[in-house]
Amino acid sequence: MSFNSVAELENKIADFFGAPHAVAVDCCTHGIELCLRLFDLDKINVPTRTYISIPFLAHKLNIGLQWEEQEWENYYYLTKDVVDAAVLWERNSYVAGTFMNISFQFQKHLSLGRGGMILTDDKDSAYELKRMSYDGRSPDIPWREQNISSIGYHYYMTPETAELGLDKFQNAVDTPPRQMKIYSKIEPETLLHLVVRIDKVSSAEMKYPEDSDNPNLARIDIASEDQFLQLALLRMNKGRTFRPHKHIYKESPPECIAQESWVVIKGKVKVTFYDLDDTIIEEVVLNQGDLSMTFRGGHNYTALEDDTQVYEYKTGPYMGIEKDKKFIKQ
Predict the structure, then answer these.
(1) What angle do CA 57, 63, 65 make, to 5 degrees?
(2) pLDDT tens digits, residue range 85-100?
(3) Furthest-apart CA pair in the chain: how many Å?
């Protein structure tokens, strides 16, 4: 087995994320370490909510550590250029001018057990990072013929891991991650659609809180509080119950939009999502247990199997088709 498989996976990952270059490593943390070593950085900014190996890097490299209370989503900046994007899986999400570090650990969307990738648009730095990850060597030159001119580290991705990545890559592309947020290209701050894949919700995200009034209830809020259509995922132990209650009328905002969600209970559905200007922005496949939510923009659904069944939820009241929707020209 040669390193050609590693190069092939690097090309596929770079193309998916929209990065000019990708450097395969044995884990995301080691990728971040290589970036910090390459630029001889003296401090990292670390959010209090992250994987524990990241702050340990400060001790390992004898550099400064600044803790930060921050809410982050998909990735955060350790320095102005080095990014921890371990949980990121989104097409064309590479941020120009950065070194984004992706993880393929067993709980990630592309689950290889171990492995990671450094995304960059700096060709020279990509070459140096590649050599650093492979004991100072170049993987395309026989080791007896190499002149080792810089310190390297044993952090390379093995061909066996890369082969597994190639086998799983297309399925990872075809299936949405645990929660996929689709923003408008017209108004980049506007969230249009959500996709939640039920078998990607990890047990780590659904832990029962130890210091809560409800120790047998774990909850993930899927829709934010400002949306008209609300949705949460609840995990409950046997016997968990709630106080009897009823909901009250509230004053509606002066303007509201019909928001819609589909939950697949049987079969498979392809969803086509549209931007605010009616152009197609994303297509995903929903399997049993998966759901989609549309807050703004358009959508279309195509059943991919006979006897496909879904639950459809929509904000009301329904006042007729003329006041509910307008059709998109195809």
Answers:
(1) 75
(2) 998 988 889 999 999 9
(3) 78
| CA-closest candidate to residue 38, choices 85, 87, 79, 95 | 79
Contact 68, 47 (CB under 8 A): yes
CB 97 within 8 A of CB 121: yes
pLDDT-derived band at 1 (thresholds 50, 70, 90) equals low
Domains of the chain: 4-170 (3.40.640.10), 175-323 (2.60.120)
Query: What amino acid is encoded at 220 in this protein?
Result: I
Residue 176 pLDDT > 80? no
Encoded amino acid at 176, one letter: P
- 160 in helix, strand or coil? helix
Q: For the full predicted model, state whether its pTM sits above 0.90.
A: no
Among the listed residues 43, 63, 38, 13, the one whose alpha carbon sits nearest the alpha carbon of residue 122: 38
Q: Give the Å distances, CA to CA, from 286 to 43, 184, 198, 271, 293.
A: 43, 21, 10, 7, 12
In sequence order, which residues have a C-beta less than 8 Å from that of residue 178 and are 6 or more positions away?
109, 196, 197, 200, 201, 202, 205
